[in-house]
Amino acid sequence: MATQVPPKHRNAMRVLMFPWLAYGHISPFLDLAKKLADRGFSVRICSTIISRETINKQIPEKYSASIKMVELCLPKLPKLTTNDLPVNMDHIVLKTLKLSKSNFAKILKNLKPDLVIYDLLLQWAEGVANEQGIPAMKFVVIGAAVFSYFYNSIRKPEVEFPFQDIYPGKNELMKLNELIAKSSSEEEHDDVDDPFAEGNIQIMLMSTSRTIEGKYIDYFTKLSNWKVIPVGLPIENRVTNDVDNAEVIDWLGTIDENSTIFVSFGNECFLSKEEMEEIAFGLELSNVNFIWVVRFLEREKRNLEDVLPKEFFERIGERGRVLDKCVLLSRPEPTP
């Protein structure tokens, strides 16, 4: 049965959003969808059935008519998100999504959106949209500092990156160059689109703020042919009664403002035991308060006691919290 569109949304400008499957990408798309809905747009978010629960949970009742999910059918494969997938296997997910071009084209034909906003990792979506006369715009969910650095390194390697405050050290730079060279030479990455590819519309949305990253936005614009529109940073407005959240927030209330470090490497980074031990020793030696969110692959069945140094919790005492899931913080103390 076709979805019934409320009268006040029938003449609204229709936008189809197509995020990459990782939560760190879906979340900024959802935040932008709410901002567009507040301005009278009708938004559809295209993703897989596995992402449906995550997306629907993040759509408040007030947006239930203006923001909806559209399911993209994929080739028959095991459950497909990046939630428990090593980063070096992401190309499999990218390739599978690309194989769904025809299904994506059908969605566009049925919905007839006025605009497609796609993730920078899904460059092929622009071509599918343009074939139907639909304009498409890239959305970059990482900050301008990181994006401008990688663009500079890959597209303009002869130009020295001018901002020394984020310039990697010699060891980091060597590893980064090796990673870039390996990625570009491996056959398994042949089907992965160029995230820096130019499009018919040289306007790029970016999840950042000019107040925070104005100089990096200006530098990237000067270095490339793109006009960048910063759409702000995603803000969590969820309310939770989770016991772990309450305990951490109560603990934050007992310490001074601006005295706490928040440590997290994202939901696609899984550290080795040795790496976790080094971070633990560093936090212990730093003598500052901290919240450290760690991630384990579900199939590994590890726990915190298995990977942290012996008697680590006894030595840090009440100075830190180590959690194996994300918490929602609503106090001002943590310093990212």
UniProtKB/TrEMBL annotation:
For this UniProt entry, the molecular function terms from Gene Ontology, in alphabetical order, are: UDP-glycosyltransferase activity
Is Zinc included in the keywords of this UniProt record? no
The UniProt keyword set, sorted, is:
Transferase
Q: Does the keyword Transferase apply?
A: yes
Record-level GO BP terms = carbohydrate derivative metabolic process
Q: What protein is this chain from?
A: UDP-glucose:glucosyltransferase
